[in-house]
Amino acid sequence: DTHGNVVHLYERDCSVQRRHQKVIEEAPAPGLSDETRTAMGDAAVAAARAIGYVGAGTVEFILDARGTFYFMEMNTRLQVEHPVTEMITGTDLVEWQLRVASGEPLPLTQSEIPLNGHAFEVRLYAEDPARGYLPSIGHVHHFAMPDTGPIPPSASVRVDTGVASGDEISINYDPMIAKLIVHGPDRDSALAGMRRALSDVEVIGVATNTALLSAVAAHPDFMAGPVDTGFLERENAALLPETEAPESESIVMAALGVLA
Question: How far apart are CA 155 and CA 150, in angstroms?
């Protein structure tokens, strides 16, 4: 803020990505030691303080196999995955930005910022992973997201989107059409909630990466904990199994069902 206060809101793991584009994010990072978490947070605060930074920003680090982290860059804004931070800290970062911009001090000190539970965010893209992640454009005939709120037994879901049935997906914007964010008391609960939420996604008219996201959420390596940035490319065959075109009879019966 403008009063000399700087805090961090813990870390997010964004290792599931392709072509340097994030696909799934989670907080806190799985497998990160308390010592590394503290050191990383302290380094981020020191970087912001050194340049007199004001407002929300994201300091990006890369972590090697030995547990040593290295500075990559600082994004001087909120990022797409900021909801997972909001879920584990119980904060509204957009509100914080407005307060700081108005000259108010930060609402909380570092010791007052909680770290509760675990959260995942998946980016729902209008694209076809089976065709090299080509963007998919066209008319959205049907668009339904999971109900927000509790997911039995212990998770909750949040949906951020600006798309609705009847909309057109064009080439003029980023292919992301929604974000699903799930929070639970622990990683296993949050991940189970995410699989449940993804099963309720319905998009007709354009191709999406929903099946890929579901496959990642159910992959044994991802379920076990941290993965590296080469995960998607390495497991591409397992995550994108070949699918057969439906039989003509099935297409006809489906069309009759819609027309009826």
Answer: 6
For the four alpha carbons of 160, 163, 169 and 172, in that order, the dihedral sign comes to: negative
- What is residue 106's DSSP assignment? P
Q: Which one is catalytic: 18, 49, 77, 196?
A: 77
Name the residue among 148, 150, 174 with its Cα closest to residue 163.
174
Looking at residue 247, its amino acid is: E
pLDDT of residue 21: 86
Tokens standing for 7? 């805090």
Would you state the structure tokens that stand for residue 61, as one six-digit string? 């680090």
pLDDT of the residue at 243: 63
Q: What is the pLDDT of residue 245?
A: 64
Read off the pLDDT of each residue in 107-128 and give the average, rounded to a whole number: 97
pLDDT in tens, 61-113: 999 989 899 999 999 999 999 999 999 999 999 999 999 999 999 999 999 99
Separation between Cα atoms, residue 33 and residue 111, nearest integer Å: 18
Secondary structure letter of residue 185 according to DSSP: S
CB 202 within 8 A of CB 211: no
Do 170 and 111 touch, CB atoms closer than 8 A?
Answer: no
**Are residues 59 and 53 in contact, defined by beta-carbon separation less than 8 angstroms?**
no
Burial degree of 20 (CB within 10 A; 0-12, 13-18, 19+): exposed
Residue carrying structure tokens 């600006």? 162
Query: Annotated catalytic, 66?
Result: no
